[in-house]
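Re: folding output
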Amino acid sequence: MTELPLGWTTRRPTLDDVPAILELVHASDVAAVGEPDYTSDEVRDDLTTPNTDMARDCWLALDDSDKIVGWAFPGNSTGGARDMANVYFWPGGGLPALKPLLELLMARMTERAAELGHPVYEVRAGAIPGETELIEALTDAGFVFLKQYARMQMSLDGVSPVAPEPPAGISVRPVRHSDDAELRAFHAVIEEAFVDSDHRAMPFEGWLEQGTRPGTPFDEWFVAEADGRIVGSLQSTDGGGDTEEGWVKHLAVLRAYRKRGVGEALLRRAFATYAAKGRPKAGLGVDLANPTDAASLYFKVGMDALYRANIYRTTVEAAG
């Protein structure tokens, strides 16, 4: 295993480390894309997501002054045969932590494969194209390029708090989040719409647990109805206090209702709601290999690619 420099150490994180981890991630974001793009809630979620145990799956690297300069953690909330290997390091000074953390995480991936019951386990990792040290470390570890995602964003300056009318025959309204049957229909649209994509399916109960918490902005979740049924879903997430950006986590339209303006109507309604709350920007992430060519819709409504991220993958065999 690659050794850390003399005086550097690793330990497991706790939730008390969230502020310091966020500082590390923001430093990495600024170096890679020019601005912070992470929130404290996202750090907390990554440490506590289903199938992640901080005491077994996550590491921090500390330099000889006990400053947190590296963070490694997995991501497989569904328990399926695919995981994410995530490694952050402090730009420049934290580089010696990169390979040791990646090696620790990849060794753990073989154990996770066995624990989750997968003889062969796919592991993915992301990197901004300019993060040459990270890409080199991933390549040395056996990862190969798979595809790109785009981080989309638009200013809400001048966006009316009143959404335009949807196309004829389509209605858009907030989800009735206290109605279990409606939430199940909302979730079913997401799962059905993404069945031909790289989306990782999640049972309703797991999706609900992961996607809701006290303060979840249900007034920013919308359904599109046509022919007496829900045919489109838009799920937003809150910025968690670190950012005022409105974030579209999922936008899904059933296949039979595509190319009819349903997705655009949902987006316009979300943007109007974000603007009414004073949010300055709207954002989302899109798989550029998505067979529905979703990116073209986002460009159409005025969004631009803030940056693109490469996705790499490899496979490991279950330990034992």
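--- second protein (sequence, then structure) ---
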Amino acid sequence: MHKETVFSPKHYDQTGEVTQRVAISSLKLAKNGDQITGAKGIYALAPDGSNQVVYTAVKVALTANGGSGKQAFPENQLVISTGSQDMVVTKVKVTKKATLLTPVHQGRGVASNSHMVRVDIYRNAKGYAGVPLYPADFKQAALPNRVITARKPHDQWQLVTANDAFICALYPDDSVHIERQHPIRLKYPDGHTDEVTSLDCYFGKINISNNSVTFKAHDGSYVIQEVALSSLDTLQLYQQDYLGNRHLVRSKRRADKTSAMVKTR
């Protein structure tokens, strides 16, 4: 079962960031010694300096232990003497940018929609565009109708219009054919690269922060350059049978919620 990570939404409206308390043993110090990270978030010195003592102590410990929180805090404890008493630190707050969140616990927290079920692909005047769908979306009265808009928060994503043509619903590992006038770069294990303008591959995932898609090789023999969805000239979904034969899927309408959670291959 997929377990959602819950964050505090306290400053989300003002900063676009959410916070989460993480164990100090999970922290890591960047090689340049400037940034402390944990749980894909950043532990930083507060603007008002309120965490100065703890932040400095954590950074010193990490620096002395190769940047590893596991080595610096093997028992997940940091003892700081404040003069009159000792303070035991086991967790600190990290912050991370968030684009698409789901309210949980009666609005006291938000969960990051990290487990994407599928992406519904449309084509508009600017090219291909995708609507990401998460488990929580299938519990709503209607499916989302906002397409990923690069470097914009979710409430500023563009809406699907009646003029946008529905193309297909993409699930991870779906067989696709893509074409692009500007060559797509392929990188092989031995270091050499190749460039192609037409490719049969698998859909991997889509990055909702910049609208770029990761595709995968059929045989895993090379890595495909991440490409902007809107930059593709052709995107076609194929169904592959047990004999390896591929058949073009021509979708006429968007799949409804009753069949969305389980895909028949």
